[in-house]
Structure formats: C-alpha cells, structure tokens
Request: fold
Amino acid sequence: MDEEADAWFDRELAGCSLADERLNKRLRKLVAQIGSAMGESIPLVCQDWANTKAAYRFFSNDRVSEADILASHFQSTRERTIATDGPVLVLHDTTEFSYQRENSDAIGITKSINSGRDKAGRLRSHTVCGILMHSSLAVTTEGLPLGLTAVKLWTRKKFKGTAALKKKINPTRVPIEKKESIRWLDNVRQSTELLGDPGRFVHVGDRESDIYELFCAAREAGTHFVIRTCVDRLAGDGDHTIADEMDEVAVKGLHCIDVRNNNGDPDEAVLEIRYRKIRVLPPIGKQKRYPALTLTVIHAEERVTPKNRKKIEWKLITDLPVSSRPDAIEKLEWYALRWKIEVFHKILKSGCKAEESKLRTAQRLTNLISLFCILSWRVFWMTMLNRSAPDAPPTLALTATEIGVLDRLVNDKPKARKTLSHYLTKIARLGGYLARASDPPPGNTVMWRGLSRLTDIALGALVGGEFVGN
Reply:
C-alpha cells in the first residue's frame, strides 16, 4: 500500500511527536478510521474489538493530551499561513459540548439552567454536564480556513452564577488571571507565538472578547485586533465615554450589504458608517496596571428599523488605522467573516457528532474532540477551496489514488477541466450533491458525506489491488 504514505493525514500529522511511535501510529490510524465514517461510533469505525479497545486505550492514555494531538496540525497551519500573501484573520470563539450522563462527576458541568416550576410553583434548575472549548481559527481575507492556531478545552468543577458573583464583588476589579476570560488572552498569545510575523495577523472576536486586557496583550505581542465592543468605556481624560464622542461624529458614508429576513428571503441593508480615533481608558479599578490606548471605533448602523428582521448595529474597536470609508468597510468585512468559526463548530457537532459520544471521562472526551477538530477543519477547508481556489491543481488536496477513484466513479462532462474544483464537486456528488446548473456551490454536509464514502472506496481499491497483485 505505497499510496497510503501519501494520505492527507500523513501530511497533516507529519510533525506528530507523541510519547512513543506506537501512539503516533495509533493517532494516524484513528484519524483515518474516524474520517472514513464521520459521525459514527468508535466501535463502528474500528470494526473489531481489538481496534476498538486500542482506540479506548489511546483516548484514556495519561501520556496523550489535546495539546499533543493538535500540535502537528498547528504546525501545518503555520506552514499554510506562510504560503499565503496578505493579512490573515485569526477568529476566536467559545462553544459548549453537552452530554447526557446520570453522574456528571467524571466529566464536569458547564452551567445551571432553569427547568421550569414544580407542582408547588417553585423554580427548579439543573446542571448541564459538558465541556467548553475556546478555539482560534486562521482564515484568509477571502474566507479560506487555513487551520487552528490554538484550542483550550476545560470543564467547571463547580458552577458559580454570574449574578451571584456580582453580588459579592465587582467583576471588573478581579484580575484577569483569576477569571475564565483569561482564555482569550492565552489563545491570542499562543496563536501569535505559533504563527510568527505578528504584524500580519488580525485577531477577530465577538462582544465576549471586549476585554481591555486583550487590547493590551495584543499591543505587547505586536499584533492587531478587530473586536465587536459592548462596553461603553471611559474616553479622553475620563470625563466622558466612547459613546459621547461617537455621538458627535458625522456619517462618513454608506455601505450596502445583502442580508436575509426572518423568512429567509433576500434583503438589502443600508448602513451608515462613522469612525473616529479615540483615547480609550482602562476600567477605573485597573488604571494603575494598564495604560490608556489610542484605538479606532467604527459604528455601522442601519438608517431605519426593518420590519421583518433585527436591525443591524455593529460597534467595532480596533488598533488598526482607519482613515477612509474603504478602510472602515474593510474592517467591517473582516469582522463579518467571524461567523466562519461558528460554521467550524457546527461541523464538529453536526458532522462529527461530538456530543453523541459515550466516552465516560473528560480526558477521553477532550482527546476525541481534539481529533474531531482536525477532521472538521479538513471538511471546511475543502468546502471553501472549491470556492476560493477552484483552478488549483487537484493534488493540492487529494492523493493520486483518490483522483483515480473519482475518475472511475463519477463520469466527466465532455471537455471538463481537471481542476481541484472539478474533483471537489465529484466528492460532493458522492455525498448527494446534484450539481445542477442552478445549484449553489456544495456545502459542508455533502462534502463530509462524500469524503467519508471516498475514503472507504479508496481503501477498498488499495486492498483490492493487493489481492489482484497476489
């Protein structure tokens, strides 16, 4: 099986260095097995008890951690970023994996939620068993996902409600090192250290990342950020706020974007754009520790409130210069790409079905989720390659065996160009994509179905070739 050495996971995991070579081989085998049947259980993808038991041992091995599993993928991400030109966006977001367990002690809990009222009318609540993941995904400004740059997985030993915390202490006075929010700073620092050339990267986050310490951490690292802000911080000399200054700013231009209303119908939104460079102050309780920063605030708001959807109102803050309407639109478009990390999380949950695993401990689950991260990235990468680099050679993403199998399985149209897009469409057709002239480009769902079928068929072709050869 000489062709197997050219498998995508061998290239992606080339830098893998677990505790011993047997673990390295097992990781590659698990990526191949689970990738060939995404969303299926471990016993099904392993086929026999010996391989299933070996998989369970791997995920529970104390010498294996999520950092070990992802280390080689992080290096491959770095290589892909070096091979690209222009700015690269690093998207940050947190997601939650919930599990149904009678006893949550072995995994942990993520939050407490309202369960309604009992027969006596008293409010009830229950804890949710699960794992939290904060991930960072590098993408080009065209939206092509280059790979993960940092992942942090954790559970909460004891849930403490935010409301209860606020009754005892002002959260803004708690050092960032003692709060869960430190994950944002950790991932920015880890991503910057991994990728190098910090001035080329722009870290993008939603309102949860509106943390003054993050602004300072990015400045210290020499990297940049575009954050959706939700805090009306003190500005200038401290006698007014950012909102006070932005109220004085005239509209600098308009920007039209395509959206969909609550019924899913296409619509157009006209945004009024305002921006200003502002001296921003840290929270009062932290002004001795952190300096004031000169940042640019961008507001984009619809002129009128639409009838069938929520009004668009974005407030961004960035350390990048904004001196014109095109500059402001560019930063808005970069922030708009943030939803791609949510698509990545959706593939993890819908494609890999990470929340349906029956593994019993947090350690085993975090190791499995880390492996799923590599598979989910590949599905997302190949889906977007079909749109952003359609004329690239097929060998960029596929092996010679896979290309040969696709040529045999899926008929070509007359005079079809043998580009990467041509073969990725063939994979999507294996997953149920009809490829009609009016159809949009294939999405993640048909891609992961097609990739699973292709992996199985390619393996069958290699095994069959061995038998015929003998």
About this structure: The CA atoms of residues 149 and 191 lie 5 Å apart.
